[in-house]
Amino acid sequence: MQRAxxxxxxxxxxxxxxxxxxxNSEIGTVTALAQVNLDIQEGEFICVMGPSGCGKSTLLxxxxxxxxxxxxxxxxxxxxxxxxxxxxxVVFQSPPLYPWLTIKENVNFGLRMRNIPEKEREAITAExxxxxxxxxxxxxxxxxxxxxxxxxxxxxxxxxNEPGMILMDEPFGALDALTRDKMxxxxxxxxxxxxxxxxxxxxxxxxxLSLATKVIVMSSRPGRIVKxxxxxxxxxxxxxxxxxARYSKQYxxxxxxxxxxxxxxxxxxx
Length: 270
Ligand SMILES: Nc1ncnc2c1ncn2[C@@H]1O[C@H](COP(=O)(O)OP(=O)(O)OP(=O)(O)O)[C@@H](O)[C@H]1O
Fold this sequence. Notes:
Layout: E1 12-25, E2 28-41, E3 45-49, H1 56-64, E4 71-76, E5 79-80, E6 88-91, H2 103-113, H3 118-131, H4 147-159, E7 165-169, H5 177-194, E8 197-201, H6 205-211, E9 214-218, E10 225-230, H7 234-237, H8 242-246, H9 249-262
Parallel strand pairs: 3-8, 3-9, 6-7, 7-8
Antiparallel strand pairs: 1-2, 1-4, 4-5, 9-10
Helix pairs in contact: 2-3, 2-4, 3-4
Bound molecules: adenosine-5'-triphosphate (ATP).
Adenosine-5'-triphosphate (ATP) binds near residues 30, 54, 55, 56 and 221.
C-alpha cells in the first residue's frame, strides 16, 4: 500500500494511565471507565468504537479537559490535563455555532478571544473558510446553512486555532451519506496537511476504517479498551485505489474483526 503521508513520529502527546471515571448521581454511582490505558502519538488518527454507553464520550471529555478522572491520570506532553485548552479543539455532532453571529464571526471568535491582531485574524479566518468551502457564506447566519455546511463551519471554527489535537465526537453522525463522504475526505486532507493528531468517535465501522491509522474498540460498561488495530486504508481512500481498498480481503477481515468485538462474539479480544 502506497503511503502518501505519514506524519506519525512516535512522540506520545496524550497518555492515559489506569483512568477510571465514576459518575455519582442521585440514583447511584455509574462506573463509566475502568483501567483505561492509552498512548496517543503525535500525528495519529485514532477512531474509537464501542457499544452505546461504553464511555466513549466520557473518554473524549477527559482528554478535552472537561472532566477529571476519578482515579488514574490523563497527561498531555507529560503534564496533567487540568482543563480545556485551545490546543485541543473539540468538534461535536451538533455544531455549537453562536446563532447571533455570522459564519465569519463564529469562525473568528476563538482568535478574538486569544487577542490575535485583527489583520492576522482576518487572514486566518479567510483561509479556513476557503478550506471548508464556505467563503461565499461568510456573512450568512448559521440558520441559513444546511447541516453539512454548519458542520463545516464548526470545523473551521476549531481549525482556525490550529490545534495540535482535534477531538471529534461523532461529528458526521447526523449527516446524509454523500455529505458524510465529503466531510471524511475534508478531515483526512486537513489531518494530512496540518499533521494534527485526531481522536474521533464513530459508530460507523467503514468511517473508522477509511479514516484511522489506529482503531480502538471499547467494551460495554465499564468501558475498557479491548482491541487496538493499526490500519492504513486511509492512505488509499483519497485516490484512485479507494474502491479496491474498500473491497479488499484485508479490509473485510478487519471490518469483521471489529464488528465481532463490538458484538462481543470474539471472546479472545485483547
Ligand atoms: N453525567 C452523568 N451522570 C451519570 N451517568 C452518566 C453521566 N454521563 C454519562 N453517564 C453514563 O456513563 C456511561 C458512559 O456514557 P458515555 O456518554 O460516555 O457513553 P458513549 O459510549 O459515548 O455512548 P453513546 O455511544 O451512546 O454516545 C453511560 O452508561 C451513561 O449513562
